[in-house]
Structure prediction request, 357 residues.
Amino acid sequence: MGEVYVITSGKGGVGKTTTTANIGTSLAMQGYRVVLVDADIGLRNLDVVLGLENRIVYDLVDLAHGRCRMRQALIRDRRLENLYLLPAAQTKDKTAVNPEQMKELCEKLKLESDFILMDCPAGIEQGFRNAVAGADKAIVVTTPEVAAVRDADRIIGLLEASEIKDPLLVLNRIRPKMVRMGDMLDVEDVIEHLAIDMLGVVPDDESIIISTNKGEPAVLNSASKAGEAYRNISHRLAGDEVPLMNLENRGGFMDRVRRLLGLRTG
Amino acid sequence: MLEFLQRIFGKDSLKSSKSVAQERLRLVLMHDRLDLSPQVLEELRCDLMDVIKDYMEIDENKMEINLEQDNKCVALVANIPVVKMKRLPSH
Ligand SMILES: Nc1ncnc2c1ncn2[C@@H]1O[C@H](COP(=O)(O)OP(=O)(O)OP(=O)(O)O)[C@@H](O)[C@H]1O
Ligand SMILES: [Mg+2]
Prediction:
């Protein structure tokens, strides 16, 4: 029996969809049966990030209303046979599905998969309530900025209120150089404020943009730093112990100088 | 670059933008979290009462507690009428 993780943030554009696609793909690479659910009704996105946008016939709302069977609505990934997408509907009506229906849907998905990752829309309204309705656990995504961390704090409070205990944090778009210069909040700072467990840190990385252009999640690219971070995260989620990644590029000239001078680099 | 040099040499009392962010985050989270539900406030009131009762008799019905804030800090303000002091072992 699988578990449903909702991937949420409050604030928009911090990397929920990117995180869902990458963790999901990496879990599938490890052999788990994975279903990614795009719960962002009206703003379908996850299909494009996965490169599956041309294959959609039915969607989440069709399935919730019994207009199709599970097997018709789930789109199998092009590369991994145990990875599926349940796309969002592009209807304008966000009330096209309700929390009760989402719960039912999750129960059914859990019967035939190991991980269900629910890509939550931004905000704290109906879309959020739908996405958390059937969730067992939560992953909160934030970036090292005041507004994003603040919204994450609100979301953590709301998750607690809906009985989703101990959410895990993904800190996205860290820029090690800026952290070192004292111009960006660091991992410790964010953890201290939010007081939740860290699932992983993902660097700000151009390879994310390239992989989104291609519709191939960065975890498929062994040279991608962000991909490596997401692979580590997925292993942690699967229960393996993986130390937090060192985001510094240690080969650089300045790094060598810094090390010679005995300065901290991490 | 200039900013960096100024920072290194401490010419300016330029705070790093990170420490500014830290402080703003601390305040904004405190304010956001102030929005305590009536139940939580009631729990706090009861807990406080239990502690105080060991030392003095208070007028439970007139006891008031509130969180007050201005833009720099937050205070827990309590008004607790004392009815009678207990005889505590003197030192
Ligand atoms: N680690 C990263 N490095 C560089 N770019 C990133 C990173 N993570 C996300 N992005 C970019 O940021 C943008 C927003 O990401 P994404 O769509 O995953 O966010 P979201 O939280 O799902 O947004 P929304 O709230 O609109 O659903 C995208 O263009 C994505 O490519
Ligand atoms: Mg999204």
Notes: The pocket of magnesium ion (ligand 2) is lined by residues A 16-17, 40, 45, 119 (CB under 6 Å). Chain B touches chain A through 15 residues (CB under 8 Å).
